[in-house]
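Postdoc handover notes: sequence design on the structure in folder B. Input tokens:
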């Protein structure tokens, strides 16, 4: 597990940018934390780190926001408003989770039983005047990715 503390929106975005390099090969990342913890801000940072320069908004009402980048396909999900995981089947959720795609999922617990197992779980919580970030690997690919993230942050 990797643990960090960040203070402010800019620091959260910068942390996301640093994560992006290790996520270039795609994967499934579950973002956990209460409302207002910085999940979408972290996603914005990841997208910036992958070269995206446009606006990044929370897909609270659209469920998913796709980002087609030169070197990556990124899908940002917000499942907060899902009342039954079955709803995800109707929208063709499995089509998004393909090899090489990076899927960043807020409120993944709402899709339990339908979503694939995440490679990484990013836990966000309050700490003093900032946020505590804990990244936990859940698959062998997640272990490799976390090692790459740790190495990148050490330099």
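Designed sequence:
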């Amino acid at each position: 597990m990797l643990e960090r503390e960040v203070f402010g929106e800019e620091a959260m975005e910068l942390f996301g940018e640093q994560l992006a390099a290790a996520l270039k090969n795609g994967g499934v990342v579950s973002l956990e934390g209460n409302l207002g913890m910085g999940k979408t801000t972290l996603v914005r940072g990841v997208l910036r780190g992958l070269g995206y320069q446009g606006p990044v908004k929370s897909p609270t009402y659209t469920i998913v926001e796709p980002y087609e980048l030169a070197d990556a396909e990124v899908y940002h999900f917000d499942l907060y408003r899902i009342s039954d995981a079955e709803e995800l089947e109707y929208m063709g959720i499995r089509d998004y989770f393909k090899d090489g795609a990076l899927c960043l999922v807020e409120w993944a617990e709402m899709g339990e039983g339908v979503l694939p197992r995440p490679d990484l779980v990013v836990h966000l919580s309050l700490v003093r005047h900032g946020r505590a970030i804990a990244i936990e690997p859940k698959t062998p690919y997640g272990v490799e990715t976390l090692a790459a993230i740790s190495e990148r942050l050490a330099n």
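Context for whoever picks this up: The mean pLDDT is 90. Don't rerun without checking with the PI first.
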